[in-house]
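worker-03 picked up job from queue 'complexes'. Input manifest follows; two sequence lines, order preserved.
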Amino acid sequence: MFDTIADRLITTIISIGSLIFPFIESIEPTFTEVQFKVVGNSLYLSATLENCYTTELDKVITSGQSVMVRFEAELFSEKTKKPVLKQEFFRSVRYNLLDKRYEIYLSEKESRLFVKDIDQVHQNLVTLKDVKIIDSSNLRHGQQYYIRLSALLENITFIGGGSELDLMLFWNNHRPIVNTSSFNTTIFMQ
Amino acid sequence: MKNLLPSFRIQIIVVFLLLLVVSILFTRQFFLKSFNSFLQRISQQDVTLQLNRLYDQYAHNLPPGDSEKFKQEIEALMINQSRTDLAVDLYRREVTIYSIYIFVFVLLAVLIIFLLSINLITRPLRRLQAATRALAAGDTDIQVRENRFSPINDLIVSFNQMVREINRQRQRAIEAEKQLIWKEIARVMAHEIKNPLTPIKLTIERLENKGLRKPEELAPVLKESIAIIKEEVQNLQSLVNRFREFAMLPAASKESYSLKDQLTEIVRAYQSTFNIELVVESELPSIYADKMQMKQTFVNLIQNAMQACAPEQGKLTIIVNPKDSNLSIVFRDNGSGIKAEDMSKIFEPYFTTKRKGTGLGLAVVKRIVENHGGEIAVASQSPGGTTLTISLPIISTNE
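worker-03 finished. Artifact:
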């Protein structure tokens, strides 16, 4: 009885306290302006996530566990404000504790990078360069569209295997989102 | 001297909070220190370094297939250790921060409970204090709100009972006083009525005797007897009028007039039989008062002075002068004075030291002066004379 009441009370106190003063140092990352590039019938996108690393997050990265940043690019109709198409890709980093190097995987290009320095990890993990998003066949003639780009950190397995650490706590549970300017099929004619 | 310290209540709260904060901080510090010391001992076991050495030592000596498997196993162990280190680090942070949450919560909770408790005691005490002041100021209907959760509710209940009892006693005292007054009035009235009735009765008996026994001598006695009866009836009527005046003093009909002229006129009427000196400043402002009631007041005081003084050596000095916003009228005689023990009673109704007095003269004077917003004071020496000072506010007709 007392245990239950004490547990609930402490949980409530911690929940309220966390709202006011979180125990993890958190930041709110933002995207730079999205750049378009048209090659043939395909639209490529470039952008960088800024202000997205903390000392704590670096510790997680260097712990040897795989840390994954998932990106979502959604094509929205300007008229209906509803998504028409969704493209997902991710970047992951894993530190090899024996070889003392980072292995970065870029899912959109299905390629791997090996770097020694955490600064290179910072750069390569969140810099999107010419990522193919849509083809001209995905767009209807005469309609306006825009792309919404967002990112999130996947949870990692904690000790014991069963529990997980929500890495979004480092981003203050805030998912960075950026909307591009609107465009239509004429973008492929330029 | 001004008290530089805050109230006792604030002092208690500050001391209590200081003690609470210090005790919680000490407790928190103790547990955090123990916890960090424990974590430090764990982290001293540098498993990652040992695994690295193990790998360097044996990996190159194993066949190629086993070497890769060995590497994977070692790496898995290192990741696991790394996870543990990370978890410990986060846990340390959690404990540190959560202990602050709990500290703040406990502090606020205790503070709120403490303030409520203090309030439960001090609020009724403040009400009780205010009620005591009100009671001292004469409000015998005052009651303090009872609250059965208050620790001093018994005291409040007792106070309320005490006030009710005081009220009952006061009512009884008023009733008793009223009865006493009525008895006194009856006694004075009986005495005063008896005095004229006796000569009336004797005169009628004399007339009866003469009429029945010597009718021829009735005529010369009749005139004298009628005069006596008339005079005594007149006395009775005068007595009744004085009582009526005291009981039903009419509302003052105020007007602006010259006090100097009024006093000069009154004094002139008495100066042939008594030595009266009137000292009045030439620039005396008009007063706004009931002319008739003022005349009654001054005549009463002059007659009192005349009765208190010896006929030949007696002297009354009346001095009138303005003083600030008041007009001071002083009646100073060189008569027999008032005994010290009688000084507090002279304005009480029916109190008299005269053989034929009703004891209403000075009581009426006091009522008239007070009805005009003024005051009357007495100073006397027995023997040596009496000084009565009337102070009346100078009010213009516009006010």
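worker-03 released lock.
Residues 8-136 of chain B form one domain.
The interface with chain A takes residues 48, 52, 55, 71, 74-75, 78-80, 82-87, 89-90, 93-94, 96-98, 100-102, 104-105 of chain B (CB under 8 Å).
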